[in-house]
Amino acid sequence: MHFQWYPGHMTKARRMMQENIKLIDLVIELVDARIPLSSRNPDIDELGRQKSRLILLNKADLAENKWNDAWIEYFKDKGYLAVKVNSKKGGGIKNIQSVIQEACKEKIERDRKRGILNRPVRAMVVGIPNVGKSTFINTLAGKACAKTGNKPGVTKGKQWIRLNKGVELLDTPGILWPKFEDQQVGMKLAFIGSIKDEILNTEELAAEFLKLMQQHYPGIIAGKYNIEETGDVYEVLNRIAESRHCIVRGNELDVEKAAALLMDDFRSGRLGELTLEYPDRI
Ligand code: G4P
């Protein structure tokens, strides 16, 4: 799903978030495991002040596991509980309910001391577009689910998904706006397909992506497309076009098509598990 962001859109997202956040105890923030910082919006720290917090490194299946673990440590050092998940296939989802309890243990303890027992924790999923919020909610709800709210005689309002006796989840996620003012961040968001390709043309985007690959994962592109890599990323694109028979008008190389194919291979994990930013290089 692609979003075009403009100030009105952002204001609306922020207002919705402010309203919904009042209703909940726990913010479950999804980030993309391949770019855990670039796929965050730090405004959530302000919006989610005084709430329990949990960060999920989603799409962990597409990122390198050693870096997933390093990011979990990084967030832990900053005082957040963080875990890795694969919402699409359900990896890590089984433990989520106990992780939620863990993230809210101070609140549960506070309630207990005040004599409030069995009040369920209410949670909301938030994140920038395309990090997998709906997939996560559906996978989690599919495992648990009984929808609450909209009982006869009750005004139609928020829908809560009862995960178990102790946890209720708002069924609509909070959408955070991406931080595309920072060019490097915008670029990485474009790599993973979170913001429109039109921001850069596909060829330029693929060329930038190839530079990153040469820096962090030398050899992967050569192996995948069975080509010899050179330092010139536009030449590499030509060679991918050749190797994949991307041809237009009889015999001209269709470099645009090769660029789209390369980005698609990366986004769907066909280049392997790749992480594009690293906690020790911030
Ligand atoms: P959003 O609500 O945050 O905007 O994201 P959404 O759930 O729509 O997910 C965006 C894309 O990311 C979807 O792919 C979804 O399948 C994929 N996705 C979500 N979680 C994971 C995950 O943990 N691992 C992997 N590999 N992919 C994940 P899509 O291309 O839009 O659709 P489709 O390919 O599933 O049909």
TrEMBL record:
Chief place where the protein resides: cytoplasm
Alphabetized CDD domains for the sequence: YlqF
Keywords: Cytoplasm, GTP-binding, Nucleotide-binding
Pfam family, one: MMR_HSR1
InterPro entries assigned: G_CP_dom, GTP-bd, GTP-bd_ortho_bundle_sf, GTP-bd_ribosome_bgen, GTPase_MTG1, P-loop_NTPase
CP-type G domain span: 10-178
Subcellular location: Cytoplasm
UniProt function note: Required for a late step of 50S ribosomal subunit assembly. Has GTPase activity.
Family membership noted in the UniProt record: Belongs to the TRAFAC class YlqF/YawG GTPase family. MTG1 subfamily.
PANTHER family: MITOCHONDRIAL RIBOSOME-ASSOCIATED GTPASE 1
NCBIfam families, alphabetized: GTPase_YlqF
The name this protein goes by in its record: Ribosome biogenesis GTPase A
Gene name linked to the record: rbgA
